[in-house]
UniProtKB/TrEMBL annotation:
Identification of the protein by name: DNA-binding response regulator
Stored CDD domains: REC_OmpR (cd17574), trans_reg_C (cd00383)
Family matches, as SMART domains: REC, Trans_reg_C
Principal localisation: cytoplasm
Annotated ranges, domain OmpR/PhoB-type: 126-227
Subcellular location: Cytoplasm
Pfam families: Response_reg, Trans_reg_C
GO MF assignments: phosphorelay response regulator activity; transcription cis-regulatory region binding
Binding region for DNA: 126-227
Listed GO CC annotations: cytosol; protein-DNA complex
Superkingdom, natural source: Bacteria
Amino acid sequence: MKTILIVDDEPKLREVVSSYLKKDGFRTLEASNGKDALHNISAENVDLVVLDLMLPDMSGEEICQEIRRRFSVPILMLTAKINEEDRIKGLSIGADDYMIKPFSSRELVLRVKTILRRSGDGELLAEQITYNDGELKIAADKQEVHVKGRLINLTPNEYKLLITFARHPNRIFSRDELIEKILGFDYEGGTRTIDQHVKNLRHKIESNPKAPQYIVTVFAMGYKFTGGGSHV
């Protein structure tokens, strides 16, 4: 049974969302502020966080960044902001998806299922692949990524993006292909979302993100993953 943490300061919203999730077989936890949210994630086996941006003790952006710093749990952001730049900002700090209030609880449940399905899809045929004499190592058996011996905390979307590239070295992926593979065919956002995920991933695995050696931009076509790896 998957556990969903609902973080919102509106008791009625938490109650409604929790009810819909429970009907679909999920276990739910609730938190009305950032402090309680972080405690729940530390103490419980949380599979996904539904996170409102407007909270009493700290902003949703701050909580999202703190979750990303410490955990790899997927995050679905809730917000009243409708501007595309706000959505891009949310994704840039680690959210996996974004819903605008007011929303349908049935749609939220569908989004939760989609995110969980995506986050469980990232698999490599080999248990481990290393690149550049071990500088980058993907341990698929543990779903861990190390750069220069240091464990890197990737979001589920970033991990799946890296796995997708690593399974198809030197293949050029268009942005639309990556959206379908990473975010799902029903994703309605623009291609800038993929650009942001690539940018975030580069900052975590590249020695120089402005001159990447792994994830390379192919002008007018998309991205490809370069560099031969050794499989174990």
